Amino acid sequence: MLIISGHQPTYLPWLGLFHKFSLCDKFVFMDTVQYLDGDWNNRNKIKTSQSPLYLTVPIDKKKSNFNNLNEIYIHGYLNKDSRDFWQKKHWKSILINYSKAPYFKEFSDELENMYVNKIWKKLSELCWYQLNFFLKILKLNNIEIIKMSEFRFEGRKDDLVLNHCKKLKGNAVVFGKHGKDYVNIEKFNKEKILVYFQNFKHPTYKQNYQGFEENLSILDLLLNHGSEKSIEIIKKDNITIDQLKKSNDWVNYKQINQ
User: Fold this and answer.
1) Percentage of the chain surpassing pLDDT 90?
2) Contact call for residues 31 and 148 (beta carbons, < 8 A)
């Protein structure tokens, strides 16, 4: 069995994305799909002593093509003052809220370099860098990643994912939980491709400050628990790829195996 999954570029991704990533053999970095205004392409949350804080990458609305994530430009990337404003502001927010976290020092140099020393022109470039950075830390970097911008795929929504499977020789696919809203299972039945909708159970773990907040950036977990413990926490009470491959939890398992 060869499992395909994928996701659009996401800034400082949440835990569920890395669980989804851990369930596949090949992952498609969907950097040519439509930009989703108000979604998570260019923002995510970290924890503060008061309430979750959104860190948002500013988008250049005049220069960007919103039908293609690979053509979303970051506002002010040519202007040092504008660039310093958002990049250094994000780094300062991380520094203020996590400098006392147990594993902050382990990752602080690389994070500072990401925000202070690099110039980010396109959102997809920033998200690609961050994804690979976090995958390396979580030891999930052995999974093959295919950039849509470097491969000829066709279709939209479920047809696009079906095309991923066919061209990458996959016979199973993992969607996020919202895939139920748009996937036509019959299309996959005809191609004998198993379908699974992720059911991520968000773990509870020790965080800075009082109370517990769900759905924060992976940064929160990593800086509080380190790399090895973080991947254990993500997988805890959630299905693993080995379990998935042996299970009949695929929504069309009976139709394909009858």
Assistant:
1) 86
2) yes
Q: Beta-carbon neighbour count of residue 222 at 10 Å?
A: 24
SS3 state of residue 68: coil
Fill in the DSSP letter of residue 117.
Answer: I
pLDDT at 131: 97
**Burial annotation 18-44 (CB, 10 A radius, 16+ → b, else e):** bbbbbbbbbbbbbbbbebeeeebbbeb
Give CA angle at 249 (245, 251), nearest 5°: 115
Per-residue pLDDT tens for 11-21?
A: 999 999 999 99
Cross-strand pairs, 28: 6, 146
> What pLDDT, on a 0 to 100 scale, did the predictor assign at position 196?
97
Calculated CA dihedral for residues 143, 147, 69, 230, nearest 10 degrees: 10
Distances (CA, A) of 192 to 18, 144, 157: 26, 23, 18
CA dist 39 and 8 (Å) reads 11
Of 57, 58, 54, the residue nearest 46 (C-alpha):
54
DSSP 29: E
Q: How far is CA 62 from the centre of its chain?
A: 26
Calpha distance 24→18 (Å, rounded): 10
Task: Give the residue ranges of the chain where pLDDT is below 50.
Answer: none
Residue 245 near residue 194 (C-beta atoms within 8 A): no
Tokens of 70: 């690979």
CA 196 to each of CA 17, 78, 108, 219, 247: distance values in angstroms, whole numbers, following the listed order: 15, 43, 37, 27, 11
Angle between helices 80-98 and 218-235 (to 10 degrees): 50
> Is the pTM higher than 0.90?
yes
